[in-house]
Write a structure and sequence with these properties.
Layout: H1 7-62, H2 69-75
Length: 78
């Protein structure tokens, strides 16, 4: 007994296969890279905040701070 598939059935099978390949590749290749990029962005953000805090402390110690702490929090809110 031979089974034949019509064009619509073949199209659905192809769509499903393509979707599975894309999902698999995303999980295997893209997701780990996105997670690494996210970690890098977090490190950069931490570095920027540390630099801002260091500069602010130096301004306070020199007595040259021209912006209030409340304004600093608003300006650099992350």
């Amino acid at each position: 007994m031979e089974t034949t598939l019509d064009e619509k059935q073949l199209s659905e099978i192809l769509k499903k296969s393509i979707r599975e390949v894309i999902e698999t590749e995303f999980e295997r290749e893209i997701r780990p890279r996105l997670l690494e990029i996210d970690r890098i962005l977090e490190m950069l953000e931490d570095g920027v905040l540390a630099q801002i805090a260091t500069e602010r402390l130096a301004e306070i110690e020199r007595g040259t701070a021209t912006i209030s702490l409340d304004d600093m929090e608003k300006k650099y809110a992350v």
